[in-house]
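Re: weekly structure request thread

Next one in the queue (476 aa):
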Amino acid sequence: MVHNPVRLSQKFLRAVLVLSLMTTACSSGEQTAGGPKAIPVKLQTLQSATLIDSSEYVGTLEARERVSLAPSRTSGRIVRIFVKEGDQVTRGKKLVEIQPYQEKEEVKAAMGSLKVAQADLRASEAEYRQREAERDQAKADVERAKADVERAKADLASANADVQEIQANLTLAEIEYKRWKFLYETGARSKQEFDDKTRQLEATKAQLESTIKTRDAQQESLNAEKESLNVSKQNLLASQKRVEQAFANIDGRRSGVLEAEGQLGSVSQTLDYNFLTAPINGIVGSFNEKKIGDNVDLGEAITTLTDNQVFNLNVGIPTENRNRLREGLPVEIINPNGTPGVRGQITYVAPLVDQNAQAIQTKMTFRNDGTLRDKQYVQVRVIWQQQPGVLVPTTAVSSLGGQKFVFVAQSGESKDGQASLIAKQIPVKVGAIQGQSYQVISGVKPGDKIAVNRILDLRDGRPIEEESIASQKTVH
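Done, posted below.
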């Protein structure tokens, strides 16, 4: 069916005329002898607010630290569980005790080997001390032999001096003998006097012979002392070698002790690992149906431990925001009721763009206030910019021909001269919706009072009064 445009226009004009007459009639009914009746409205005084330029995204929280707890050094049977699921534990706390399959006799054997090695070391140290004493005695023997040699040299020198002295006396005695012999033969001296000189010469010869024997004995004594010194030096060298060998034995025994200690430590450490301890602070997770009496193998997960203090959230930010995206930007989680929640910040921005999603992988970090959980699905707001401004409830804003308006309560005067309020229709420029309010860029300022209800009933210049005042008048 084809409709006639002219007939449709005529019908529309008649409808508008009827609506206009009805509005005029209603308006005339509201007027009094003094003018239009004041409309009671709720007024709100605008306050300075922070205007936020933001974008919203969704993602899943991930705990910054989450570990799977499993035996890493020993397998065995669970004999004790010290905690229950959901417990908050600190690092180092014992969680589970595992009785290893390995027998403790290995530890006893290792301890026995260690004791034997330590005994061998003590014996070697005692031998070393003995060899040192022998070496010190040999050193003393060498010094004593040196002194004996020096003394024998002095005695030999003294004997040689005696021989030289007696040889000189013998020479004088021979000269004297020859002179007296001549005198005796010439009759100048008596036979008795000659015999005295003869006996004196023989006595000197005998003394020289005795002194030479003494000197020869001193020489033999010196040779013997020298030989004794050589023997003492050889003994000293031999004792020094024995000391060095004893010291080497100590090093070997010490190595044996260290090896035995290492073996004992290795076996003992394996047994020490029968306690599964918390590597981080966190909350104990499910025990994967493990209970006391169950066997666990190396690497088999028993439970998890999650640190719920700090969470990360990985989000892909569209490339259109790449120039504004940077580390340190504030972010906040939006609660289910739409209110701001836990605040955090961007801690990592990927250097490359995800070609498939045309997004930049971004990591946000939040410190838990007690309301967040690992793997929780959340909505977050990235705050690009914040600046002072005014927020106006969306219910207070009207639109006409694409222009936004608010009604500001201004002081006026009624026809009877009484002070009154009138609704002044003010055009405003608004931005994004923040919460339940518009961000106002221009048009109103902090301190202005605006009407927040009955907006469709108001006209520019229409008298108004606050609802609370109007209620009081009605009561009176």
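The CA atoms of residues 389 and 415 lie 37 Å apart. The chain has a mean pLDDT of 84.
Next request, please.
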